Amino acid sequence: MTRMNSTVQAVEETGRTQRKLAPAYEQIKRYVIERIANGTWKPGDAIPSETMLVKEFGVARMTVSRALRELTTERVLTRVQGLGTFVAPREYESTVLEIRNIADEIASRGHRHAARVIRLETSNLQTAISELDLASGPVFHSTIVHLEEGEPIQYEDRYVNPKVFPHYLERDFSLETPNRYMVRLAPIQRAEFRIYAHKPDAQIRRQLEMDIGEPCLMVWRRTWVGEAVATAVRLWHPASRFHLAGHV
Questions:
Q1: pLDDT above 90 (res 233)
Q2: Rg (alpha carbons) of the chain, rounded to whole number
Q3: How far apart are CA 171 and CA 94, in angstroms?
Q4: Cα dist. 159→36, 125, 126, 131 in Å?
Q5: Where does the HTH gntR-type domain lie (predicted)?
Q6: What is the pLDDT of residue 243?
Q7: What is the rounded CA–CA span in Å between residue 101 and residue 121?
Q8: pTM for the predicted model, two decimal places
Q9: d(CA 199, CA 81)
Q10: Which domains, from first to last, does the chain contain?
C-alpha cells in the first residue's frame, strides 16, 4: 500500500511539473479544460474575462488571447462579441438544439432558394423588447420572404438583440439567411418555441400569395447565446405548403 501511495504521489508531482514547464498559454488552456472536465464550468457558463485571467496568471494579454483563441478553434469555448467567452455546448446538446436553415432545407429537396428582404430597421416595439429580455430599445427588426423555386413559402418576422449581433443591419440577407449568419457567429445555447394555427393579416397574406381565408402555421421561437436572448422570430407558413417532420 505504501508503494502504491508513493507511485500515485510521484505521478501527481510529475503532472504538476509538466504543467509548470509548459508554455504559459498551454497552462491556461489546461486550467480551462480541467475546470470544464470537473464540472466547475458547465456548457453555456461564462468563463473569467481576459483581464481576470491576465491578473490570475501574471501573463501578457496576448498570451491569454492565444489560449482562448485556440480553445475556441477546438470548439471547447465559444466567444461572443460584446458578451464574453462561454463554455461551448457538448456535441449532443448541439444536435438537440440544431435549428435548420430554410435555405438548407430547400436545397436538400433539390430546389432553389431565394429571399426577398422587405424590411431591415431599428424598432422600439415594446413586445419585441420584452421578448428579448431587454430593459429598453431600440432592437433590430427584419422581415424576409423565403421562396422555393420562386414560390413564397415562409414569411420571417424577426427581432434581434443588438448587443449580441451589433452588425445585423449591415448584412445582405438576400445572399445569406439570418439563421446562417447568426449561427455562424455564435452557436445557440438554448431555444424555446411554440406552434400556432393563425389567419395571417393582409400584408403577410399578400407577401405569401395566399387566398383570403387560407390559414397559416406560425412558429414562434426564441434563442439564447450565453445568458442573453439573441433573437425572437415568428415564421409564417401557408398551411397548404408546409409540414412538420422529424425523427428520434
A1: yes
A2: 23
A3: 25
A4: 33, 10, 11, 9
A5: 22-90
A6: 56
A7: 22
A8: 0.62
A9: 39
A10: 2-88 (1.10.10.10), 96-241 (3.40.1410.10)
Distances (CA, A) of 56 to 18, 20, 33, 76, 126: 19, 15, 16, 21, 42
- Distance from C-alpha of 174 to C-alpha of 177, rounded to nearest angstrom: 7
Torsion of CA 149, 150, 152, 154, to 10 degrees: 50
Burial tier of 236 (Cβ tally within 10 Å: 0-12, 13-18, 19+): buried
pLDDT at position 124 is 95
Ramachandran region of residue 243, left (φ > 0), alpha (ψ -120 to 50) or beta?
beta
CA angle 20, 24, 25 (to 5 degrees): 130
Q: Where are the beta strands (DSSP E) in the chain?
A: 77-80, 84-87, 113-123, 139-148, 151-160, 190-198, 216-225, 228-238
Asked whether 132 and 161 are in contact (CB, 8 A), the reply is: yes
Closest C-alpha to 46, from 75, 86, 106: 86
| Per-residue model confidence (pLDDT) at position 117 | 96
Q: From CA 181, how far away is CA 169, in angstroms rounded?
A: 12
Q: Extract the C-alpha cell encoding 37.
A: 472536465
Cβ burial 61-96 (10 Å sphere, 16+ → b, else e): eebbebbbeebeeeeebbbbeebbbbbbbeeebeee
Query: From CA 85, how far away is CA 187, in angstroms rounded?
Result: 12
